[in-house]
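Subject: two folds for Thursday's group meeting

Dear M.,

Sorry for the delay on this. The cluster queue was jammed most of the week, so I only got both jobs back this morning. I'm pasting them in the order they finished. Each block is the input sequence followed by the predicted structure tokens. Could you check whether the formatting survives your parser before we put anything on slides? The first protein is the one we discussed after the seminar.
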Amino acid sequence: MSRISLPSPEQMDADQLRVYNKIISGRRGKIQGPLRAALHNAELADRWQALGELLRYNTTLPPRWSELAILVTGRACQSPFEWYAHRKEAEAIGIEAPIIEALLQQQVPPGLNEDEALVHQFSVELNASRSVSDATYAQTLARLGERAVVELTALVGYYTMVAMTLNAHEIPLPEGVQPAFLLPQRAPKP
């Protein structure tokens, strides 16, 4: 159960309903996850969905690279909802089960090509240390180029925000879906 209310269209004011309709008529086709919480501030939700659409659908990163980075981030941020949603996306674009399982176990996936291995390493390091080693940065920059490195960094940052929102508000998984991993215990109240 969510910690906050998740308004249905019947409960939304005019601004919320305008953003809701924009989201469901766009590439997403539905509203789920963090945007349900963000709708408490219609302007935030509108800008959020625009940034998310840009990073998911309108960068130079191939969908396979994006989904690898998002799964790494969802797992690193311990976000069951993000993992659930993007595991489905990864499977839909043909990311192989052994790769997904390795990401779930936070291991180096088998069978990645050189570009995918760099995307994976860059994403792992950025999530783990909030930066990237000189060696990984230089290799990724040389191989993928400046624009891709900027887009990859923004994608990881965006999905970190998504994961934090999902986790903080405890946005529930769809009914009948079990989390893919155990959640850490929340810090006790001081």
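Second protein, same layout:
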Amino acid sequence: MNLIVAVDKNWAIGKENKLLISIPDDMKFFRETTTNNVVVMGKKTLLSFPNGRPLKNRTNIVLTTDNTFKVDGAIVANSIDETLELLKEYKTQNIYVIGGGSIYKQMLPFVDTAYVTYIDYGYSADTYFENLDESDEWKLIEESEEQTYFDVEYYFRKYERV
């Protein structure tokens, strides 16, 4: 299973249910990587999308403890176990965990590849991702050349569980 996330230099991922920065090439990478695949997200992440609608051309699975939550165009799961059971129907290489913070934390033990857009800047944030560089369980296996968006430097990184 895969995970895709954008982090700042402190491994922060968001503030007040919003991304820290929207970088067009990162959005393009996300779109190209997840299209025609399965995306797993929390309810708040889904509701942060335009009109709170599921992502097009993907199988959307929403993990929430809200037993009454329903949304057209998405499959709703109410526990990690239920989510993992649903995911058995798909090839693991076609599954991407896309957030938010609590979903990343709950699903990380089941992920073996992480696509991380590393932004070399520290933002004000309230939500963080585990620092894979400090984990013995993860190894950086690929890193792009330095990218820039205005004055912000960032890198596309790929980590694998060791």
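Two things I noticed about the second structure. The chain has a mean pLDDT of 97. The first strand starts at residue 2 and ends at 7.

Cheers,
T.
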